[in-house]
Each structure stands twice: as structure tokens, then as C-alpha cells.
Amino acid sequence: MKLAGKTVVVSGGASGLGEGAVRYLLRAHDARVLVLDHNAQAGSSLAAELGAERVLFAAVDIADEAQVAAAVAQGRAHFGALHACFNFAGIVSPLRILDREGRASAGERFRRTLMVNLAGTFHVMSHCVQAMRENPPDADGERGVVVNIASGAAFDGQVGQSAYSASKAGVVGLSLPAARELAPLGIRVNAIAPGAFWTPMLQSLPAGVVDRIAADFQFPKRFGQPDEIASLCCTIVENAYLNGECIRLDGAFRLPPR
Ligand SMILES: NC(=O)c1ccc[n+]([C@@H]2O[C@H](COP(=O)([O-])OP(=O)(O)OC[C@H]3O[C@@H](n4cnc5c(N)ncnc54)[C@H](O)[C@@H]3O)[C@@H](O)[C@H]2O)c1
Fold first, then answer.
1. Does the beta carbon of 38 lie inside 6 Å of ligand 1?
2. Ligand 1 centre distance from Cα of residue 137 (Å)
3. What are the pLDDT digits (tens) for 119-158?
4. 200 is in which domain, residue-wise?
């Protein structure tokens, strides 16, 4: 599917990789974007900067399905159709299974991480594909494309990442059955597992953790750049034969155990 003039839903589009994807979609493809994010201040100022005719912002907690449903319906009414969905919204949530005193006390944080990163991804994906199924098929029979953002931590989870890794492994696991279920509708679903990108999320981690990550870079010996993930998202949309796959984008970097 060619992206020019199409509408893409970008969750988490108010910051970091999602914001990079919004800017890239406008710059490289002249696409329209519905941004879903719970940071109302950052989302509104991004939409104001980029222009209401090209970017619509909706303040949404993706863990709340009713909010997602209302925002996706609003976006469809505004732009007329939704063609692709990039699921960037997520939280990093370091937690230990047992605290320093040996007590099991992290259950609530674990559940919230899964609600945002996994159930939230499902909410956005499912309401977007409900809108995509109304699109007329193109010559290949295609109606829409979903790109879910997982993480290298889905495969190489570090100590302290049990909630985050489990949620992102869920995002990987979600994508193939979704691709299979939605194939009769002409909707493709893929995932990307990023390595380390220098965004507010990574900047929120303790310096020691970030230093250990940087020490293990292979090639290129640097953090990934938002445009590198945005361009991969767009390639996935434009390459009709990519389906049901999870692509690691990490310069051969693998997370160490801690
Ligand atoms: N930065 C990295 O190195 C890296 C590596 C692997 C995976 N990822 C994944 O990429 C995605 C984007 O990460 P980032 O680094 O740009 O982080 P970020 O913190 O800069 O951006 C995340 C965005 O998601 C939004 N968000 C968080 N919870 C939300 C909720 N409940 N409802 C709606 N919006 C919510 C935030 O407000 C923010 O705008 C995340 O899913 C993250 O797990 C990032």
C-alpha cells in the first residue's frame, strides 16, 4: 500500500519513536495521522505545530478500550478512512519479582504493564482493523496494515524486566495469529522489535543500565535513530508481501542479563 495521502493511526505519537514516526510520515509520505497518546499537553502541541488538516490528536489511555474506541471513531470520521496503524505507545516498568526484603509485592505494577503494553496494543489494533475492514480493497485485495512495536526485551529480557519483557513477548505472540485471522480481510500485521533508541523512555533508565547497553553495541556503535524505525514501519506498509513477521531492528545488539 502506498502511503501518500493515506491516514495512519500512531499510538504513543506524542514522544520518542512515535513522534519520530509522525514527523516522518508527514515529511516522507505526505500522510495524515491520528495521534493517540495520554500526554495531552505534548500531543496537542505537536498537532498544533504540524497543522490540524494533517494531524489530529486524541488524548487516550490505551489501557481503556472505550477511550480507544471513541478516539478511533473520531479519527475515521475526521479523515474519512484509516489505512495503517503503528502501535508505539508503551511504558518501561522496571520491577523485581521479590523486593529487597524478599517479599512478593509487584503484582499490581505487573498487571498495569501488561494492560498498557499488551492489552493497549490489542485495543488499538482491534479498533483500527474494524475501521480498515470498511476500506475498499486495492488491486492486491489489501485494506490495511498494522505494525506493532515489541522490543528486543521480548527475547533477551534483563533482570528487572519481567513485566516489560512479558508484555513485549505478548506483542510478538499477538502478531502472527492476528495476521492469520485478518488475512481474509486483506489486512496485514507485523511487529518490530527495536534494540536501543535514545528517547525519553531510555533516558528514564538509571545511567548504569544505559552505560552497560552502550558498551555492548555491535555495528553501528550507537543508539538507533527514530527515522530508522519510522522508515521500517513505512517499508512494512509499502511491501505487500511482508506479513506475520517480527523484525528485530537493533544493529545486532543483544541485551545482557543485567
Ligand atoms: N527507546 C527504545 O530504545 C525502545 C526499545 C525497544 C522498544 N521500545 C518501544 O517503543 C515504543 C516507544 O518508546 P519510546 O522510547 O519512544 O518511549 P517514550 O516514552 O518516548 O514514548 C512513549 C509514548 O507512549 C505514551 N504512552 C505511554 N503509556 C500510554 C498509555 N497508557 N496510553 C496512551 N499513551 C501512552 C507516552 O505518553 C509517550 O508519548 C514503546 O512501546 C517502547 O516499549 C523502545
1. yes
2. 32
3. 999 999 999 999 999 999 999 999 999 999 999 999 999 9
4. 7-249
